[in-house]
Protein backbone atom coordinates (compact mmCIF):
# COMPACT_ATOMS: atom_id res chain seq x y z
CA UNK A 1 0.00 0.00 0.00
CA UNK A 2 2.78 2.37 0.99
CA UNK A 3 4.58 1.64 -2.25
CA UNK A 4 1.42 2.40 -4.26
CA UNK A 5 0.88 5.65 -2.32
CA UNK A 6 4.43 6.85 -2.83
CA UNK A 7 4.36 5.87 -6.53
CA UNK A 8 1.16 7.87 -6.97
CA UNK A 9 2.67 10.83 -5.13
CA UNK A 10 5.78 10.68 -7.29
CA UNK A 11 3.62 10.50 -10.40
CA UNK A 12 1.55 13.55 -9.39
CA UNK A 13 4.70 15.49 -8.53
CA UNK A 14 6.18 14.62 -11.94
CA UNK A 15 2.98 15.73 -13.70
CA UNK A 16 2.99 18.97 -11.70
CA UNK A 17 6.66 19.59 -12.50
CA UNK A 18 5.96 18.99 -16.20
CA UNK A 19 2.94 21.28 -16.12
CA UNK A 20 4.93 24.09 -14.60
CA UNK A 21 7.24 24.04 -17.62
CA UNK A 22 6.35 26.25 -20.52
CA UNK A 23 6.07 25.00 -24.10
CA UNK A 24 9.35 26.66 -24.97
CA UNK A 25 11.16 25.02 -22.04
CA UNK A 26 9.85 21.58 -22.97
CA UNK A 27 10.87 22.12 -26.60
CA UNK A 28 14.28 23.48 -25.63
CA UNK A 29 14.96 20.46 -23.45
CA UNK A 30 13.88 18.09 -26.22
CA UNK A 31 16.06 19.94 -28.76
CA UNK A 32 19.04 19.92 -26.42
CA UNK A 33 18.73 16.16 -25.97
CA UNK A 34 18.89 15.75 -29.73
CA UNK A 35 21.84 18.11 -30.12
CA UNK A 36 23.78 16.30 -27.39
CA UNK A 37 24.30 13.55 -29.97
CA UNK A 38 25.60 16.11 -32.46
CA UNK A 39 27.89 17.57 -29.81
CA UNK A 40 29.46 14.16 -29.17
CA UNK A 41 30.03 13.62 -32.89
CA UNK A 42 31.45 17.08 -33.51
CA UNK A 43 33.81 16.97 -30.52
CA UNK A 44 35.07 13.58 -31.66
CA UNK A 45 35.65 14.86 -35.20
CA UNK A 46 36.84 18.28 -33.99
CA UNK A 47 34.73 19.70 -36.78
CA UNK A 48 31.63 21.81 -37.25
CA UNK A 49 28.49 20.10 -38.56
CA UNK A 50 26.62 21.91 -41.31
CA UNK A 51 24.07 19.42 -42.70
CA UNK A 52 23.82 15.79 -43.81
CA UNK A 53 24.79 14.35 -47.18
CA UNK A 54 22.77 12.10 -49.49
CA UNK A 55 23.82 9.04 -47.50
CA UNK A 56 22.72 10.54 -44.24
CA UNK A 57 26.29 11.17 -43.04
CA UNK A 58 27.20 14.48 -41.40
CA UNK A 59 28.27 17.13 -43.86
CA UNK A 60 30.98 19.17 -42.15
CA UNK A 61 31.76 22.82 -42.90
CA UNK A 62 33.52 23.58 -46.15
CA UNK A 63 37.13 24.67 -46.39
CA UNK A 64 38.86 27.11 -46.58
CA UNK A 65 35.96 28.81 -44.80
CA UNK A 66 32.21 28.46 -44.57
CA UNK A 67 29.58 31.13 -43.96
CA UNK A 68 27.72 28.73 -41.62
CA UNK A 69 30.65 27.96 -39.30
CA UNK A 70 29.55 30.31 -36.51
CA UNK A 71 26.10 28.80 -36.05
CA UNK A 72 27.08 25.57 -34.30
CA UNK A 73 29.26 27.18 -31.60
CA UNK A 74 26.56 29.86 -31.30
CA UNK A 75 23.97 27.15 -30.68
CA UNK A 76 26.26 25.58 -28.05
CA UNK A 77 26.59 29.00 -26.34
CA UNK A 78 22.81 29.45 -26.27
CA UNK A 79 22.35 26.03 -24.68
CA UNK A 80 25.17 26.71 -22.20
CA UNK A 81 23.58 30.01 -21.22
CA UNK A 82 20.31 28.25 -20.41
CA UNK A 83 21.60 25.06 -18.82
CA UNK A 84 24.96 26.18 -17.37
CA UNK A 85 26.22 22.72 -18.33
CA UNK A 86 29.99 23.11 -18.81
CA UNK A 87 30.02 20.51 -21.59
CA UNK A 88 28.21 22.98 -23.86
CA UNK A 89 30.68 25.74 -23.01
CA UNK A 90 33.59 23.45 -23.74
CA UNK A 91 32.03 22.52 -27.08
CA UNK A 92 31.36 26.16 -27.97
CA UNK A 93 34.96 27.16 -27.21
CA UNK A 94 36.43 24.17 -29.06
CA UNK A 95 34.25 24.75 -32.11
CA UNK A 96 34.83 28.48 -32.43
CA UNK A 97 38.62 28.00 -32.15
CA UNK A 98 38.47 26.10 -35.45
CA UNK A 99 37.84 29.30 -37.40
CA UNK A 100 39.25 32.03 -35.15
CA UNK A 101 41.88 32.99 -37.77
CA UNK A 102 39.13 33.77 -40.28
CA UNK A 103 38.67 37.07 -38.46
CA UNK A 104 41.35 38.46 -40.76
CA UNK A 105 39.67 37.45 -44.01
CA UNK A 106 38.79 40.37 -46.23
CA UNK A 107 37.56 38.44 -49.26
CA UNK A 108 33.94 37.90 -48.20
CA UNK A 109 31.17 39.61 -46.26
CA UNK A 110 30.04 36.74 -44.03
CA UNK A 111 32.20 37.78 -41.07
CA UNK A 112 29.16 39.14 -39.25
CA UNK A 113 27.27 35.88 -39.52
CA UNK A 114 30.36 33.94 -38.49
CA UNK A 115 31.72 36.02 -35.62
CA UNK A 116 28.75 37.77 -34.07
CA UNK A 117 26.87 34.50 -33.61
CA UNK A 118 29.84 32.75 -31.99
CA UNK A 119 32.45 35.08 -30.45
CA UNK A 120 29.77 37.74 -29.98
CA UNK A 121 27.79 35.38 -27.79
CA UNK A 122 30.97 34.21 -26.08
CA UNK A 123 31.85 37.79 -25.14
CA UNK A 124 28.35 38.65 -23.96
CA UNK A 125 28.16 35.53 -21.79
CA UNK A 126 31.72 35.43 -20.37
CA UNK A 127 32.94 39.03 -20.72
CA UNK A 128 36.37 37.73 -21.78
CA UNK A 129 38.55 40.26 -23.58
CA UNK A 130 39.95 37.68 -25.96
CA UNK A 131 36.50 37.27 -27.50
CA UNK A 132 35.96 41.02 -27.67
CA UNK A 133 39.21 41.42 -29.62
CA UNK A 134 38.16 38.75 -32.11
CA UNK A 135 34.93 40.66 -32.74
CA UNK A 136 36.84 43.91 -33.26
CA UNK A 137 39.30 42.26 -35.64
CA UNK A 138 36.47 40.68 -37.64
CA UNK A 139 34.61 44.01 -37.84
CA UNK A 140 37.80 45.72 -39.07
CA UNK A 141 38.13 43.10 -41.80
CA UNK A 142 34.46 43.47 -42.75
CA UNK A 143 34.56 47.25 -43.15
CA UNK A 144 37.43 47.01 -45.65
CA UNK A 145 34.69 45.91 -48.08
CA UNK A 146 32.70 49.13 -47.67
CA UNK A 147 32.61 51.39 -50.73
CA UNK A 148 31.62 55.03 -50.16
CA UNK A 149 30.43 55.53 -53.76
CA UNK A 150 27.95 52.70 -53.39
CA UNK A 151 27.20 53.11 -49.71
CA UNK A 152 27.40 49.35 -49.19
CA UNK A 153 29.68 46.53 -48.08
CA UNK A 154 30.50 44.32 -51.07
CA UNK A 155 29.17 40.79 -50.56
CA UNK A 156 31.13 38.58 -52.90
CA UNK A 157 34.44 39.00 -54.67
CA UNK A 158 34.17 38.67 -58.43
CA UNK A 159 37.51 37.30 -59.56
CA UNK A 160 38.04 33.67 -60.51
CA UNK A 161 34.80 32.28 -59.09
CA UNK A 162 31.22 31.58 -60.23
CA UNK A 163 30.28 35.16 -59.35
CA UNK A 164 32.82 36.33 -61.96
CA UNK A 165 30.95 34.34 -64.60
CA UNK A 166 27.84 36.43 -63.93
CA UNK A 167 29.77 39.56 -64.94
CA UNK A 168 29.12 41.35 -61.65
CA UNK A 169 31.35 44.18 -60.47
CA UNK A 170 30.05 44.90 -56.96
CA UNK A 171 27.40 42.38 -55.89
CA UNK A 172 25.45 43.03 -52.70
CA UNK A 173 23.03 40.38 -51.46
CA UNK A 174 20.13 40.90 -49.09
CA UNK A 175 21.75 38.41 -46.66
CA UNK A 176 24.50 40.99 -46.09
CA UNK A 177 22.11 42.97 -43.90
CA UNK A 178 22.66 40.31 -41.23
CA UNK A 179 26.36 41.15 -41.01
CA UNK A 180 25.51 44.60 -39.67
CA UNK A 181 24.78 43.27 -36.19
CA UNK A 182 28.51 42.68 -35.67
CA UNK A 183 29.21 46.30 -36.62
CA UNK A 184 26.58 47.72 -34.25
CA UNK A 185 27.93 45.52 -31.46
CA UNK A 186 31.54 46.54 -32.07
CA UNK A 187 30.61 50.23 -32.02
CA UNK A 188 28.92 49.63 -28.68
CA UNK A 189 31.88 47.83 -27.15
CA UNK A 190 34.59 50.14 -28.52
CA UNK A 191 32.71 53.44 -28.46
CA UNK A 192 33.93 54.02 -32.04
CA UNK A 193 31.06 55.08 -34.30
CA UNK A 194 32.79 54.12 -37.56
CA UNK A 195 31.27 50.61 -37.55
CA UNK A 196 27.79 51.85 -36.72
CA UNK A 197 27.92 54.56 -39.38
CA UNK A 198 28.85 52.03 -42.03
CA UNK A 199 26.05 49.73 -40.85
CA UNK A 200 23.51 52.56 -41.07
CA UNK A 201 24.70 53.64 -44.51
CA UNK A 202 24.51 50.05 -45.78
CA UNK A 203 21.02 49.59 -44.29
CA UNK A 204 19.77 52.83 -45.87
CA UNK A 205 21.23 52.09 -49.32
CA UNK A 206 19.74 48.60 -49.21
CA UNK A 207 16.36 49.95 -48.11
CA UNK A 208 16.40 52.37 -51.05
CA UNK A 209 17.49 49.96 -53.78
CA UNK A 210 16.96 46.35 -52.81
CA UNK A 211 13.20 46.31 -52.25
CA UNK A 212 10.11 46.32 -54.44
CA UNK A 213 7.10 48.48 -53.62
CA UNK A 214 5.29 45.47 -52.08
CA UNK A 215 8.04 45.02 -49.45
CA UNK A 216 9.70 42.00 -51.06
CA UNK A 217 13.39 42.07 -51.86
CA UNK A 218 15.65 41.06 -54.71
CA UNK A 219 18.43 38.69 -53.83
CA UNK A 220 21.43 40.28 -55.61
CA UNK A 221 22.02 43.87 -56.65
CA UNK A 222 25.05 44.62 -58.76
CA UNK A 223 26.39 48.15 -58.36
CA UNK A 224 28.82 50.23 -60.37
CA UNK A 225 31.63 50.66 -57.82
CA UNK A 226 32.69 54.02 -59.32
CA UNK A 227 29.31 55.74 -59.63
CA UNK A 228 27.26 53.78 -57.12
CA UNK A 229 24.54 53.21 -59.74
CA UNK A 230 22.50 50.01 -59.62
CA UNK A 231 23.50 47.95 -62.67
CA UNK A 232 21.20 44.96 -62.25
CA UNK A 233 18.70 43.35 -59.89
CA UNK A 234 18.88 39.57 -60.09
CA UNK A 235 18.92 36.34 -58.13
CA UNK A 236 21.43 33.64 -57.25
CA UNK A 237 19.53 31.39 -54.85
CA UNK A 238 15.94 32.26 -55.75
CA UNK A 239 13.64 30.91 -58.46
CA UNK A 240 13.84 34.00 -60.70
CA UNK A 241 15.18 37.55 -60.73
CA UNK A 242 11.70 38.89 -59.98
CA UNK A 243 10.76 36.25 -57.42
CA UNK A 244 10.88 36.48 -53.62
CA UNK A 245 13.43 33.96 -52.34
CA UNK A 246 12.13 33.00 -48.91
CA UNK A 247 15.33 33.15 -46.89
CA UNK A 248 16.12 36.53 -48.41
CA UNK A 249 12.78 37.83 -47.11
CA UNK A 250 13.56 36.28 -43.73
CA UNK A 251 16.99 37.93 -43.57
CA UNK A 252 15.48 41.32 -44.43
CA UNK A 253 12.80 41.01 -41.75
CA UNK A 254 15.29 39.93 -39.12
CA UNK A 255 17.88 42.55 -40.05
CA UNK A 256 15.64 45.64 -40.13
CA UNK A 257 14.15 44.61 -36.80
CA UNK A 258 17.73 44.35 -35.49
CA UNK A 259 18.59 47.78 -36.98
CA UNK A 260 15.71 49.23 -34.97
CA UNK A 261 17.08 47.55 -31.82
CA UNK A 262 20.38 49.41 -32.16
CA UNK A 263 19.19 52.76 -33.55
CA UNK A 264 15.59 53.21 -32.37
CA UNK A 265 15.03 54.83 -35.77
CA UNK A 266 11.36 54.29 -36.52
CA UNK A 267 11.89 53.99 -40.25
CA UNK A 268 13.55 50.61 -39.64
CA UNK A 269 10.66 49.44 -37.48
CA UNK A 270 8.12 50.49 -40.12
CA UNK A 271 10.19 48.77 -42.78
CA UNK A 272 10.41 45.55 -40.79
CA UNK A 273 6.62 45.61 -40.46
CA UNK A 274 6.27 46.14 -44.20
CA UNK A 275 8.40 43.04 -44.84
CA UNK A 276 6.41 41.08 -42.22
CA UNK A 277 3.19 42.04 -43.98
CA UNK A 278 4.56 40.89 -47.31
CA UNK A 279 5.46 37.50 -45.85
CA UNK A 280 2.42 36.89 -43.68
CA UNK A 281 -0.17 38.04 -46.22
CA UNK A 282 1.34 36.45 -49.30
CA UNK A 283 -1.13 34.12 -51.08
CA UNK A 284 1.59 31.44 -51.24
CA UNK A 285 2.42 31.64 -47.54
CA UNK A 286 1.37 28.17 -46.34
CA UNK A 287 -1.17 27.43 -43.66
CA UNK A 288 1.48 26.06 -41.26
CA UNK A 289 3.63 29.20 -41.57
CA UNK A 290 6.74 27.43 -42.89
CA UNK A 291 7.47 28.97 -46.31
CA UNK A 292 8.16 27.22 -49.56
CA UNK A 293 11.79 27.85 -50.56
CA UNK A 294 10.65 30.71 -52.81
CA UNK A 295 7.33 32.55 -52.59
CA UNK A 296 7.05 32.34 -56.39
CA UNK A 297 8.34 28.81 -56.93
CA UNK A 298 6.48 27.52 -59.98
CA UNK A 299 4.96 24.27 -58.66
CA UNK A 300 3.57 25.33 -55.30
CA UNK A 301 2.24 23.35 -53.40
CA UNK A 302 4.61 20.72 -54.79
CA UNK A 303 7.79 22.58 -53.88
CA UNK A 304 10.18 22.02 -50.97
CA UNK A 305 9.60 23.94 -47.78
CA UNK A 306 12.41 25.82 -46.10
CA UNK A 307 12.36 25.28 -42.35
CA UNK A 308 15.36 27.61 -41.99
CA UNK A 309 13.27 30.51 -43.30
CA UNK A 310 10.47 29.55 -40.92
CA UNK A 311 12.84 29.58 -37.94
CA UNK A 312 14.44 32.92 -38.91
CA UNK A 313 11.01 34.50 -39.46
CA UNK A 314 9.72 33.17 -36.11
CA UNK A 315 12.72 34.55 -34.26
CA UNK A 316 12.48 37.91 -36.04
CA UNK A 317 8.73 38.20 -35.37
CA UNK A 318 9.34 37.57 -31.67
CA UNK A 319 11.73 40.50 -31.52
CA UNK A 320 9.39 42.62 -33.66
CA UNK A 321 6.62 41.77 -31.21
CA UNK A 322 8.64 43.38 -28.42
CA UNK A 323 8.41 46.72 -30.25
CA UNK A 324 4.80 46.43 -31.43
CA UNK A 325 2.77 45.37 -28.38
CA UNK A 326 3.07 41.67 -29.24
CA UNK A 327 1.41 42.22 -32.62
CA UNK A 328 3.20 39.28 -34.28
CA UNK A 329 3.41 36.95 -31.30
CA UNK A 330 0.66 34.64 -32.57
CA UNK A 331 2.32 34.40 -36.00
CA UNK A 332 5.62 33.47 -34.37
CA UNK A 333 4.11 30.87 -32.04
CA UNK A 334 2.14 29.40 -34.94
CA UNK A 335 5.37 28.85 -36.92
CA UNK A 336 7.11 27.41 -33.85
CA UNK A 337 4.19 25.05 -33.19
CA UNK A 338 4.53 23.77 -36.74
CA UNK A 339 8.30 23.44 -36.58
CA UNK A 340 8.02 21.62 -33.24
CA UNK A 341 5.62 18.99 -34.61
CA UNK A 342 6.40 15.68 -36.30
CA UNK A 343 6.34 17.24 -39.76
CA UNK A 344 9.57 19.19 -39.12
CA UNK A 345 11.17 17.95 -35.89
CA UNK A 346 13.21 14.81 -36.34
CA UNK A 347 12.79 11.73 -34.18
CA UNK A 348 15.51 11.23 -31.54
CA UNK A 349 18.90 10.35 -33.03
CA UNK A 350 17.60 10.62 -36.61
CA UNK A 351 18.33 13.42 -39.11
CA UNK A 352 22.06 13.31 -38.31
CA UNK A 353 21.14 14.47 -34.77
CA UNK A 354 20.02 17.86 -36.08
CA UNK A 355 16.67 19.12 -34.77
CA UNK A 356 14.80 20.31 -37.84
CA UNK A 357 14.23 18.52 -41.13
CA UNK A 358 13.25 20.09 -44.47
CA UNK A 359 15.42 23.12 -45.18
CA UNK A 360 16.82 24.30 -48.48
CA UNK A 361 20.33 25.70 -48.96
CA UNK A 362 20.38 26.65 -52.61
CA UNK A 363 17.92 24.98 -54.92
CA UNK A 364 19.21 26.52 -58.18
CA UNK A 365 22.68 25.21 -57.36
CA UNK A 366 21.23 21.77 -56.53
CA UNK A 367 22.74 22.17 -53.09
CA UNK A 368 21.20 21.04 -49.78
CA UNK A 369 17.60 20.49 -50.79
CA UNK A 370 15.21 19.18 -48.14
CA UNK A 371 17.90 18.62 -45.52
CA UNK A 372 18.74 19.74 -41.97
CA UNK A 373 20.91 22.87 -41.74
CA UNK A 374 22.88 24.15 -38.76
CA UNK A 375 21.39 27.64 -39.14
CA UNK A 376 17.81 26.33 -39.16
CA UNK A 377 18.52 24.80 -35.74
CA UNK A 378 20.34 27.93 -34.55
CA UNK A 379 17.39 30.25 -35.25
CA UNK A 380 14.92 27.67 -33.92
CA UNK A 381 16.80 27.57 -30.59
CA UNK A 382 17.06 31.37 -30.62
CA UNK A 383 13.32 31.70 -31.26
CA UNK A 384 12.45 29.26 -28.45
CA UNK A 385 14.81 31.14 -26.14
CA UNK A 386 13.10 34.42 -27.05
CA UNK A 387 9.72 32.82 -26.37
CA UNK A 388 10.97 31.53 -23.03
CA UNK A 389 12.05 35.07 -22.13
CA UNK A 390 8.41 36.04 -22.62
CA UNK A 391 7.40 33.36 -20.12
CA UNK A 392 5.66 31.25 -22.81
N1 LIG B 1 23.72 33.61 -46.76
C1 LIG B 1 23.50 32.48 -47.54
C2 LIG B 1 22.16 31.87 -47.44
O1 LIG B 1 21.25 32.38 -46.80
O2 LIG B 1 21.98 30.85 -48.04
Question: How does this structure look, described?
Answer:
The structure is a single chain. The chain has 392 residues and is mostly helical. The chain has one domain (21-389): Alpha/alpha barrel (Glycosyltransferase), CATH 1.50.10.10. It is 52% helix and 8% strand. It contains 14 helices and nine strands. It has helices at residues 2-19, 23-45, 71-83, 86-97, 111-126, 129-143, 162-165, 180-190, 194-209, 246-263, 266-280, 307-323, 329-339, 374-389; strands spanning 49-52, 58-60, 146-147, 152-153, 171-173, 220-223, 230-234, 359-362, 367-371. The strands form four sheets. The chain has a three-stranded antiparallel beta sheet with strand order 5-6-7, with no helix packed on it. Strand 6 and strand 7 (230-234) form a beta hairpin. Helix 11 (266-280) crosses helix 12. The longest helix is centred in the first third of the chain and has 23 residues, at 23-45. The model has no long low-confidence stretch (mean pLDDT 96). The structure holds glycine. Glycine (GLY) is lined by residues 67, 175, 237, 247.
Amino acid sequence: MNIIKSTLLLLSLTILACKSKTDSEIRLEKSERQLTGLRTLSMKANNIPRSVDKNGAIRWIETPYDWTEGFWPGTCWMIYERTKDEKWKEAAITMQKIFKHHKNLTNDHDLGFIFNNSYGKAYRITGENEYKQVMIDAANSLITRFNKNVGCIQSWDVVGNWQAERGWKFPVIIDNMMNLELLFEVSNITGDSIYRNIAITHANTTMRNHFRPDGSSYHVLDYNPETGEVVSKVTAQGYADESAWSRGQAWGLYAYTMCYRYTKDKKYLDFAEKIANFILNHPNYPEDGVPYWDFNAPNIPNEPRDASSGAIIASALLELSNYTGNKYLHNATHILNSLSGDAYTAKPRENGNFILMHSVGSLPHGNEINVPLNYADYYYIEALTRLKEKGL
